[in-house]
Fold this protein.
Amino acid sequence: MNTNHFDVIVLGGGAAGLTAGIYLSRAKVSTLILNEGMVGGQMVLTYEIANYPGIEQTSGYMLSLTMKKQAETFGCVVKQNVIIKDVNLEGSVKKVVLSNNEEYTAKAVIIASGGSSRNLGIESEDTFKGRGISYCATCDGDFYTGRDIIVVGGGNSALEEAVSLTKYAKTVTIVHQFDHFQAFEHAVEAAKQNPKINFVMESTISGFYGQDQLDFVKIKNLKTNETTDRTIDGVFIFIGYMANSTKFQNKVHLNQRGEIPTDEKMATNIPGVFAAGDVREKQIRQIVTATSDGAIAAISAIEYIQNQ
Amino acid sequence: MTNLEHVLTAAQHKEVIENNENVMICCGRMGPMCIPVYIAMDELKAEYPNIKFLDMEFDSPDAHVIRNAPECSRFMGLPFTMYYKNGKVAKATTSIQNKEQIKAILDQYLAS
Ligand SMILES: Cc1cc2nc3c(=O)[nH]c(=O)nc-3n(C[C@H](O)[C@H](O)[C@H](O)COP(=O)(O)OP(=O)(O)OC[C@H]3O[C@@H](n4cnc5c(N)ncnc54)[C@H](O)[C@@H]3O)c2cc1C
């Protein structure tokens, strides 16, 4: 038996991929989950999950460990921290090649590669990561006690985290590209009521500067194109998420936002290729919708294999 | 909570870096920026048998040996990750690093 051949390969081990792994393996379908990064995906970024039915409260890390264990108990093989070099999704045998040139084949593939936080696309952003730029208020907020900080973004995460950062920071300036917010009204109100928070609208950050740590940023007014320098201790960036689909460009149909359109059975435009979770074109991105997608994709993949 | 050996005291920290040629210590909390680093370290143990991989709780009083290290004076993102060669800091990083980034540091600073 070729140990690198499986009935189904699942690309991505977040809530959607792990659920697919549970359903497939429990149905005695040989399954390999290949995950770039650590298993759990965005769940691991969540300290506290209080809206997953049946579990009053847990951390995202614990929930993902339980899902992984469930999948493995049924015989699913899970490989994390791999890098996908190439995928061939056409034909009856699909192939995945890793960066170490290991090759895996399968009759069907489920793409469950989820989403990643957007960055501003400024070269110096990575240089100041952990030296003035942060993506996690809960992790790094206390380093900014008594300091002046900026929060970039206008969605729920940005406004909620801006309010939570006022526990530590002296002032919080929200920089947002539009003249209105995308967040829920109650989140906007909470931010507006907070005396430590002020707003710079229709603007973005166009550069980060400093020696060993962030000293100042350039803020560009998107209406006038005027740029001003602002001395700042820290910048927290919450500008949303985008689908992890660059590796599937020209392999499967993507919409303009890079998401994979599917039908109700999670089938893509390629026979034997399914998509599940946040990488899919859909409205509501939550753990419960990702697990639902994963279960449907798994059952559809089983059906596809049986009909081959 | 992690599968790594834990450094609990400043004395143990001293003992570990003095008695092992290559040491990597991740000093953090059980948060989203730290957990991926612990997991990557756990996976790298087998690949780098000559390196000792440990963690240290950021909020323990004795973690001042890392929190207050000169190499970390500008750090403002968890975890603080230290790479020691012959008892001296060879490299220090702040915030999350993925497995490939960690491997690149191990190969450049410790593996040789
Ligand atoms: C900060 C935060 C808080 C949240 N809070 C909640 C909450 O309280 N409740 C709730 O229900 N939802 C919450 N969500 C949303 C929820 O976490 C996501 O909708 C859900 O986890 C998505 O799961 P997924 O499996 O589709 O994708 P992901 O979780 O993104 O997992 C995809 C996995 O695939 C990997 N990957 C990427 N590219 C590839 C590739 N080419 N090949 C293989 N693997 C790849 C990624 O590294 C990742 O591990 C939150 C999200 C965030 C960011």
